[in-house]
Every structure is written in structure tokens, then in C-alpha cells.
User: Which sequence fits this backbone?
């Protein structure tokens, strides 16, 4: 990616199906594409830049009900407005005491194991899973089912049939839960959507499936990979432990430096247009590489260096424009609380295996670590 970006921040890209499209690797053109409504996010127009059979049932067809990430305005706008109130900075601040308790409880459970644990299994995965379950009104006792299905959806090597089955099971689970919350409401998002009456049951279930799957997979990946990065950069970890007030800044830098959406965001121009002197034809696929954009030296000085004291403002880890991640405030808060508490509780935390033996999530749509053996 670095060589491509140095040559040009906009390059031709041959997709696995033979289609010739474009790859955006520069920070500024990435922002332009993601902010321009002439670039569509509709699933029927999307192509992925790597061979991924699991997308076959979904890309090339209209978006599933409730899956606003695969829609343009006005459908995207209508759905997003129904959800946004639950993910504002203000509401996230109100959730902070509960997130604190969840983090502390998981650290207590981890400490009870003795001096060694898999950080992903014991901490990075359960923390965001518990938070999103409470927010949506999903019983955490059902986590094995939804975690299995959401993991299947994000794997690169699953078949179209396996992905379709996982989606059907996840949708059936959320449909049943949405109907139940309509009859027995609680103080949660699914109950509020059911009582509101503006969305169909299918849309509520679809939006719930999207938020549940992406809401725990992405933050879990960021927590696991972020911990790995800090343990692999002891100078940066020492700065954080010496000054816990750096936690918020460290989160932004880790988001920029790691960027777990490692295959980028797909967009499609709806009309012929010009970008960086090139003519992009209507219907040509465009992949915006968030990871390359976040390492663009034109935007970030010495971008391949992790520096938790730098200003990483303007990074694109959550995307940009109308489709910018709806849960970004929640993710930031979870990461800030989790990192600060983790290293305060276990100041001697270190890898229990050589870094070369940590299993990386290269087979997933969201980058991360499958496991992170640690000791203290």
C-alpha cells in the first residue's frame, strides 16, 4: 500500500471477478469519496477487493432490511435517525458507570484464573459483548449463538451457503427477540424501536443484527490488537501507565495505527466524475483503504510509528461522512476505560508467548488477534 500511495493516492485495481476499478490510498481523497453522496454504499453495487465467497448472498442484491450500512439516502437516513439517539456522546457518558463495572468484573474474573489467561477470551471479547447486549436488550446468555454466527459472517474463507445460513440464524434470533421486546419492553434499544412503531419487525431485527455483530466484533478486535500493540511497544505502554490521562489520546492513536477495517470500504460512483485528475465512470468499483489513508505521511508525520502522544485527530478508522460509524462514541469509551483499567490492575502484564506465535486475524474481515496469551 505504501508503494502504491507514493506513486499515486488513486490507483487502478483489478477485483477478483475481473472488474477493473479503483483503490484510494490517500487520506484526503479518501475523505472526499466517503463524504460525496455521488459515491454509493448500496449493496447491489458493491464488490470486495479480495476473494470472499461469504459476501455472495448479500453483495449484488438490495440491502437486507435494517442493514443501513448497505443503503443510501433516504433509506439510510431514515434508519440512522431512529438509532442515533442511543449512540450519542451524551448517552455514552451516561453508560460510563455501567461500562466501568463490566470492565472491573471481567478483570476480577481474569485475576481469579491465577497468573495467565487468554486476554481475548477473558476480556477483549466479553467486555464489548456485555455492553452491546445491555444496550440492545439481548440476553448475554445467548452469546455463544450470536458470536458464532457473527464470526462466520466476517470470515474470509466461508462459503456463500455458510454465510447465508449464519445470517438467517442471526436474523431469526433477532426477529424473535424484537417480537418479544414488543410484548415485554425494557429500557433498551430493541424495546424502544418496537414501541416507536416507525420500523417494521424485519428492519428492527436487521438493525439489531448489524449492531450486535459489528458492535462486539470491531471493539473486541481493537481491544485485543491494541493490547498486543502496546505490549509490543513497551516505551508507549510505559508512557500510558505513567500517565493514565493519556488513555483517550492513546485510543485515537491505536485506532489510526491499527485500523481493523483492513480491506477498506467499498463505494460505487453513480455518475461519471473526476477525482485527482482521473475520470471514474459510473458503476466502477472504488475501494477506500482506511488503513493506507491512516498511514498517509501527507496527513500524519512519521505515520508508521506508534506514538500515543501524537494528535491522531482526523483519522478514518470509523469512516467518514454520512456512513461514519454510528457506535464510535461507545467504542472509544469502552477502549479508554478498558485499557486504563487493564494496565492499572495488571502493571506487569506481558505476552505469555513470543509475539510471532500470537494468532493474527488475517482470515477475518475485521483484523485482530484470535487469542492473546498473557501473564502477570
Assistant:
Amino acid at each position: 500500500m505504501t508503494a502504491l500511495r507514493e506513486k499515486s493516492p488513486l490507483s487502478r485495481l483489478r477485483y477478483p471477478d475481473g472488474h477493473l476499478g479503483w483503490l484510494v490510498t490517500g487520506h484526503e481523497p479518501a475523505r472526499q469519496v466517503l463524504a460525496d453522496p455521488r459515491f454509493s454504499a448500496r449493496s447491489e453495487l458493491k464488490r470486495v477487493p479480495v476473494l470472499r465467497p461469504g459476501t455472495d448472498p448479500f453483495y449484488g442484491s438490495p440491502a437486507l432490511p435494517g442493514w443501513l450500512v448497505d443503503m443510501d439516502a433516504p433509506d439510510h437516513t431514515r434508519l440512522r435517525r431512529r438509532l442515533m439517539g442511543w449512540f450519542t456522546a451524551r448517552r455514552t457518558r451516561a453508560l460510563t458507570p455501567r461500562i466501568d463495572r463490566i470492565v472491573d468484573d471481567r478483570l476480577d474474573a481474569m485475576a481469579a484464573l491465577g497468573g495467565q489467561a487468554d486476554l481475548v477470551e477473558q476480556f477483549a471479547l466479553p467486555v464489548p459483548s456485555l455492553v452491546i447486549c445491555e444496550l440492545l436488550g439481548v440476553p448475554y446468555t445467548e452469546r455463544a449463538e450470536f458470536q458464532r454466527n457473527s464470526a462466520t459472517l466476517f470470515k474470509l474463507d466461508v462459503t456463500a451457503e455458510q454465510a447465508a445460513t449464519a445470517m438467517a440464524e442471526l436474523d431469526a434470533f433477532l426477529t424473535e427477540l424484537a417480537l418479544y421486546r414488543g410484548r415485554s419492553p425494557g429500557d433498551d434499544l430493541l424495546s424502544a424501536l418496537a414501541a416507536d412503531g416507525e420500523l417494521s419487525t424485519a428492519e428492527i431485527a436487521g438493525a439489531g443484527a448489524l449492531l450486535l455483530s459489528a458492535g462486539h466484533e470491531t471493539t473486541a478486535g481493537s481491544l485485543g490488537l491494541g493490547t498486543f500493540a502496546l505490549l509490543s511497544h513497551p516505551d508507549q505502554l510505559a508512557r500510558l501507565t505513567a500517565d493514565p490521562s493519556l488513555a483517550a489520546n492513546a485510543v485515537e492513536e491505536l485506532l489510526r495505527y491499527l485500523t481493523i477495517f483492513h480491506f477498506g470500504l467499498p463505494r460505487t460512483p453513480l455518475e461519471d466524475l473526476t477525482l485527482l485528475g482521473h475520470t471514474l465512470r459510473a458503476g466502477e468499483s472504488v475501494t477506500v483503504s482506511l488503513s493506507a489513508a491512516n498511514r498517509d505521511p501527507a496527513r500524519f508525520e512519521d505515520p508508521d510509528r506508534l506514538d500515543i502522544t501524537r494528535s491522531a485527530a482526523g483519522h478514518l478508522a470509523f469512516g467518514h461522512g454520512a456512513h461514519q460509524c454510528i457506535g464510535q462514541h461507545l467504542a472509544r469509551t469502552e477502549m479508554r476505560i478498558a485499557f486504563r483499567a487493564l494496565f492499572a490492575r495488571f502493571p506487569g502484564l506481558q505476552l505469555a508467548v513470543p509475539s510471532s506465535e500470537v494468532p493474527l486475524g488475517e482470515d477475518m474481515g475485521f483484523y485482530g488477534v484470535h487469542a492473546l496469551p498473557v501473564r502477570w
Summary: The chain has a mean pLDDT of 95. Residues 34 and 321 are 6 Å apart (CA to CA). The first helix runs from residue 2 to 7. The two ends are 37 Å apart (CA to CA).
